[in-house]
Amino acid sequence: MSSAKNININLKIWRQKNAKSKGSMETYKLDNVSTASSFLEMLDQLNEQLINEKKEPIAFDHDCREGICGMCSLYINGRAHGPDTGITTCQLHMRMFKDGDTIFVEPWRSKAFPVIKDLVVDRSAFDRIQQAGGFVSVNTSGNTIDANATPVPKHDADKAFEAAACIGCGACVATCKNGSAMLFVGAKVSQYALLPQGKVEATQRVLNMVRQMDEEGFGNCTNTGACEIECPKGISLENIARMNREFLKASLK
Amino acid sequence: MAKSALLKSSIVKKYWMALTGLFLCLFLAGHLAGNLQLIFGDALQFNQYAVFMTSNPAVKLLSYLTYFSILFHAFDGFMLTYQNVKARPIGYAKTNPGANSSFSSRNMAVLGTLILVFIVTHMVNFWAVMHFDKNMPLMKQTVEVQGQKQELFVGRKVGEFYQVDQIQLEGEAPNPMMPKQITIKNGTDVYNIQANVKIGELYKDLHKITFAFFQDAKTGLIATILYVLAMAVLAFHLLHGFQSAFQSLGVNNKFTPAIKTFGKLFAIIVPLLFAVIPVYIHFFK
Predict the structure, then answer these.
(1) Tag placement on chain B: N or C end, fewer CB within 10 Å?
(2) One biological process GO term for this chain (chain A) (predicted)?
(3) What's the confidence (pLDDT) of residue B1?
(4) Segments forming the whole domain that contains residue A168
């Protein structure tokens, strides 16, 4: 990486002691950040600096650091997962920033995603939506049918796979001006609705998942399309339209 | 489940938003066709159209549906916006909305509120005058008979005219020296006084008050400018709203690019043609 260089940056980061306390934006200065490092590595570097200064390190979510798990979040300079498209924050690199930049780092903002500490939010609302209907019934009595034994049209399989690429990171909620979770729920409804295995519970699934989504306090979809653009997995708005169709079908049954 | 969901759910609110919105798009097209008669038709044609629009039972039904749609679209939009604001109690310190969405899509509530204000003032200016104003002028025509100018009320039957000075106007006290034969009742009905029998009907002159409104020496220019601005707001609202309605109803397929293109054309052309009318009346008539 011969093109890598070191830059000095200013950071404005949301600090909040716990779920009950009132947080605020704090300013930090960090020197000698390699442009080859990832955004999370930069935060690691900042945390080392804070620990050396005997200060509380910044809490932030991360796990696989290869864009698969959906754990990392962060609203960076006004955009979910930062200033690039089709990536999670762990895939964001410091080469996207310039020497002397001031970078804003905030947690996902949603009533349904309360802040636990600093930049960490509680995304279990997504788990509860999933539990409300994001599953299929499978006979596990020993007569389990191989999934490949059920023919699925290629087109449907592809669409279902695209929807199933959702990693549940919550960028759609964070970026939506209404804090709507419809891209997430649309993807989860679609991945089953498109497959024969998902047809059995199709009616109850969409009704239950949408009801749970509403109960969690997410906002409503205004079709701005912001979620689709910020989604690290490129989940399409088609999935929201499909959920709307499924919901209408199910409501009329 | 199904029944309560059809009233409460976030998705159902969007269905209603879309259905009422699309119906109002149809209304806009119809209203525009009527208004264009102000440019391409004469006063009589426009006033005949006004009678048709206020008396035909089918049109009446449609107009009630339109009032309902406007009110429900606004109410539903208010409910959705209220929930959306509540869904993010603490906002971001830094935002960059232009990176992923259009101005129109983010400001539908503001644009819609402005349109609602416009609709109310618009109805006060024209609809309320047409329906309730006791001083609404009746359509007259001045003709020259043997070198003398005569003012005639225009009747609704072909070739039916009434000399203005021979009609006892509504609210006018009878003159015992020169009693008149004919009078006007209920705004537009022509009655024979002695027999108390309806013998004809006149036109309310909506054409005249529309022209007067935009040609008024003091307020005509500002009214024209405000009208044009309101149409610009409408254009931005439609720019997002038209195609958004189809997405809300679950239509996102091979026709979507065509729907988006048609929606953009509709959003630009319809408000533009609406806006041309007052500009034409104020500056070129």
Answers:
(1) C
(2) aerobic respiration
(3) 43
(4) 123-252
